[in-house]
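#onboarding

Welcome to the new folks! Below is a worked example of what a typical request in this channel looks like: someone posts a single protein sequence, and someone else replies with the predicted structure as tokens. Don't worry about understanding the tokens yet, we'll cover that in week two.

Example request:
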Amino acid sequence: MAGGERGHRPGELPEVRHRRHVEQFTASACKPADCAQLAKDMGAKYTVLTARHHDGFALWPSPHPNAWHSGQAPLRRDFISQYVMTVHEAALRVGLYYSPLSWRYPGYYDVRGTNCLPSEWG
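Example response:
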């Protein structure tokens, strides 16, 4: 996608279209053991996975009613537990990156909180 993740800014890529991209993602080629082995073969001592991106999508199932996560269709997977187990089995250290900010929160674009308008991201 041209512009990378910056293409998801309000007015550039509507939330509905962005969500459709994620909902079409099946992760059929996701092989955590292969990734862990590659990292080990390269001499890495640890790997880091983005647990939740700042678009609000999380790689683990969540019971929160407004959550957007991999436990929902079509994925129905807990990538975090798979990742942690596989990386530990490869004798590597585990790293998780969690973005506390979310594009779905109206204050994301107004970090000073002076003019928080409703966000199309919910």
